Amino acid sequence: INSSNIMKFTVSVSLLLSLASTSNAFGILNVPQKFDRNLFSLNAKKVSFKEESRKALVEGINQVANAVKVTLGPKGRNVVLERSYGAPEIVNDGVTIAREVTLEDPEQNVGACLIQEVASKSDSKAGDGTTTSTIMTQAIVNNGMRAVTSGINPVALNRGIRKAASMVAKEIERIATPVSGIEDLKNVATIASGSIEMGRIIAQAADKVGDTGSTVVEESQTLIDEIEFTEGLTIDRGYISPYMVKDQERQVAELVNPRILVTDSKIDNVNEIVPLLEMLVKSKEPLLIVAEDVTGEALSALVVNKMRGVLDVVAIKAPGFGNRRREYTQDIAIATGASFVAEELGITLDSVTNEMLGTADRIVIAKELTTIVTDGKQQDAIDARIAQLRNEAENADTDYDKEKCQERIAALGGGIARIKVGAATETELKDKKLRYEDALNSVDSARELGIVPGGGACLAYLQMTMEQEILDAMEDDDERQGAQILIKAMSAPAMQVAENAGIEGAVVLSKIQTICEEEGFGYGWDAATMEYCNLMERGVIDPAKVTINAMENSASVAGLVLTTECLVTEIKINMSEEDKQRLFDEQQMGVGMGPGIGGM
After folding, report:
1. Cα–Cα dist 425/54, whole Å
2. Interatomic CA distance for residues 142 and 58, integer angstroms
3. What are the pLDDT digits (tens) for 302-325?
4. Cα separation values, 130 from 109, 419, 537, 546, Å
5. Rounded distance, CA 66 to CA 64, Å?
6. Up-side HSE of residue 443: CA atoms within 13 Å toward CB?
7. Residue 149 CB contacts under 8 Å (≥ 6 apart), including other chains
8. pLDDT digits (tens, 9 = 90+) for 358-415
9. How do 340-341 and 259-263 pair as beta strands?
10. Which of 8, 254, 365, 493 could in theory staple to 456 by disulfide, Cβ–Cβ 3.0 to 4.6 A?
11. Which residues partner with 45 through β-bridges?
12. Strand, coil or helix: what is 224?
């Protein structure tokens, strides 16, 4: 046996083991004499069929849903999550709880992963409604399992569930009320966060920055929540030289009605910018230079002219790195109406004219931050750029790219509100941040598609009014059974809100539907005050988009679970500590002996 012969073959596990005793003599493979076959065997798979497979999935779904649903409504409770390091986390957020659950039984864990997918989809599309979608999934799956067991065709059942969900989603979109003002946003944020104070802060932020602005949540070192606003186009770069500072006390340079040069070039030769500087000395206009860098004699010339009072000029480095730097620089050019000076576009620094320079109302340059307050002349170009960035954000491959696009939209659109969250402990801080993020996402969803009555009342009303219309739209009895399952599940959120408040869910549901029949759409049960009232007037509202996503996502996954006929999972191998250590040693030995098998 030699290396060249062995390398011609794909060595099987059995061959490795049979060679183990002889190969030591030739120095080919170093395997201990006492060797466990399990260390080299691949994990075997368990295959479950029919009722057994579906039952395991449902048990997993129920375990996650039961953990999540206790958080629903104003009287919902919290869930404590153990952490391998640091303090345990106390949360009220459905998707965070769902993601934490990993079950010991591999088959049940597949069910848990499916419902985590429902919660994650609701979270990524609408940012809230994860608990509602989880409860709906559980209700559809449990009711559907009985139907499948009784012999109904699961494929037709799934078709009926999806058709019914689509009809309900369209109806919710139709009856939703557009957001009419700051009060509606405050109510949406209050319901989503479970706190009047949080609702007030979020509404204040949303009102200030408008539709195109952005609100970010940050940690604060204080015990109270604060809010800060940044107006205009903000760049996280400051002046290149401290000699450019005008206000020594505040350590900022402020330019009023300045001209702006935007380039991706590095400026180090003063001769390139002399024509431009001479032109501005004559017009006595301040100048902001945004470039990759300004160094050498060019920087010296700018500083000397600044200190002598010949020219009011400040230079900053372009924000970002690599490709992003070019994109950010183009944003600045569009916002200020400047021509983007780049050699590849055929524009050099020494050919820059007065018409190529941008304008702004005011620019404040600090040590590490520059704020450009635009003069409004380029609004059409800014709106077009924002539309382009929104399209980029929708098609972004990663969350990071999407986040960066949203930041650029906010910077161009009107400003950024920073909510600084304060708390006495780390555990409370994390919980508050999650609540703020949920509420912010709800506000965005409400602006998009409008609002509907909260507390599950919207679905309870549609369950009563749409039942016959949905059933008539189905093609056969099996589809009607599927539609009936979804219609029945629509009452689950309202009943769970009531049960979390300590009231019998069926009684509350019946009363809500009776009141809606008498008074019309919009009435329901306010769990916070334990009263039946007009929820729209009371401010107990949900974004329509959240309710629609909960309906569509739960129907999608629940339908797939019901059509499952076979489940394949890994059989877990319980290795002793000695086996684990021996496997680790063998792997390390293989790495240390170089490429190939055992160092060949």
Report:
1. 43
2. 7
3. 898 888 888 888 999 888 887 788
4. 19, 23, 25, 9
5. 6
6. 32
7. 51
8. 888 888 888 888 888 877 787 788 888 888 888 888 888 887 888 788 778 877 776 6
9. parallel
10. 493
11. 570
12. coil
3-class SS of residue 12: coil
For residue 127, which phi and psi values (nearest 5 degrees)?
Answer: 80, -5
| Token couple for 577 | 């500590």
Residue 339 · residue 356 · CB < 8 Å:
yes
Q: What angle do CA 440, 213, 208 make, to 5 degrees?
A: 80
The chain-wide mean pLDDT, for the chain, equals 83
CA-closest candidate to residue 475, choices 20, 160, 231:
160
Report d(CA 281, CA 274) in Å as an integer. 10
Residue 386 structure tokens? 């924002």
C-beta of residue 408 within 8 angstroms of C-beta of residue 396: no
Q: Are strands 415-421 and 226-231 parallel, antiparallel or unpaired?
A: antiparallel
Question: pLDDT for 26-55, tens place per residue?
Answer: 444 444 444 444 444 456 888 989 888 889
Q: Pull the structure tokens for residue 200.
A: 């007030």
Q: Which of 485, 462, 484 is nearest to 471 (CA)?
A: 484
Are 423 and 90 within 8 A, CB to CB?
no
Convert the pLDDT of each residue in 428-453 to its tens digit: 888 898 889 888 888 888 988 999 99
* The residue type at 299: L
Is residue 550 within 8 A of residue 133, CB to CB? The reply is yes
> What does the alpha-carbon distance between residue 118 and residue 133 come to, in Å, rounded to a whole number?
7
Least confident of 250-259, 271-280, 577-586: 577-586
